[in-house]
């Protein structure tokens, strides 16, 4: 186990109707001017927007807004949000939504005091030395951004989708009422399930010492996400299933499932190239597809890890590690199909001719490798993986 310094300051406020406490919560922290960030019309149609605004008004909290945030959030929203925030001298951002809304809010917060291009943070040219705080009302269980230090933004001009991690990105609080996810479609719920699973699976597949606790935690979170996610797809108003899925979302990406390990993602960068190039590909769907291609390409490099995952998640009773690993990869494909997810890039119209472009985007035109466990992937490897994804 390596040395580590772990802290997650995000306060999780969980339960029915907890969003109605948002005015009191913000007032307790002493914030007086808030930028409310949200996505599409569903926030207003559900009545959530009106409830939030009413709670802010009750406490005399000034508010302005940035709406219309799209999936795979674009840089333009960050630039617009920063402008609105500065003009109104806001001292806090309230993200009402899922990962795209939260990441946009984080990017606005990080760039509020920065005079340059907000995407500089994602390109790792600079790090935030001062930010404004972000609070969350979570409406989609998926990205885990409500408790993570990650912030992913897309620059459509360069087709580059890139994340950056910093402890200042972690939200101050996250209000989690499972009832707010009842209206999430079955497809979006399935997408969210795949994303939650992969946040812990990415950490699990990095190198482990013997009997490393976080590996047990990672697999437990993955299995819980599979069960609660499938139950949520089948019964969208199952409070317990939605609640377990929401909690799994937060725990999968807050760093707990890689504590004491060096962790570097590999499937996420592969997917970021896909949805950066083709924004119509939902992140969670792309994650499912890229995992299958990656697993098929690298599983022989760490048979014990793949076999252990297969036995734990799918109860595969096979002694031979290679056979167990292969069966587990196929079982994962079957699970994805059982909740309505695509399993091939060709289902989105991506063809062989697109693969070199994707490989260039993923590797910076061949200037960097992806991942570290069970092997690093160069441009040739990445293109081969995408081919397995077709």
Q: How much β-strand is present in the residues?
A: 5-15%
CATH topology of the largest domain: Dehydroquinate synthase-like, alpha domain
How many discrete structural domains? 2
Characterize the biggest β-sheet. 6 strands, parallel
Order of helices and strands: EHEHHEHEHHEEEEHHHHHHHHH
Supply database-style keywords:
390 residues; alpha/beta; Rossmann fold; Dehydroquinate synthase-like, alpha domain; 2 domains; 15 helices; 47% helix
Report on the structure:
- It is a single chain.
- With 390 residues, the chain is an alpha/beta fold.
- It has 2 domains: 171 residues, Rossmann fold (3-Layer(aba) Sandwich), CATH 3.40.50; 204 residues, Dehydroquinate synthase-like, alpha domain.
- The strands form 2 sheets. It has a 6-stranded parallel sheet, sandwiched between helices. The chain has a two-stranded antiparallel sheet with strand order 6-7.
- The longest helix has 22 residues.
- The mean pLDDT is 97.
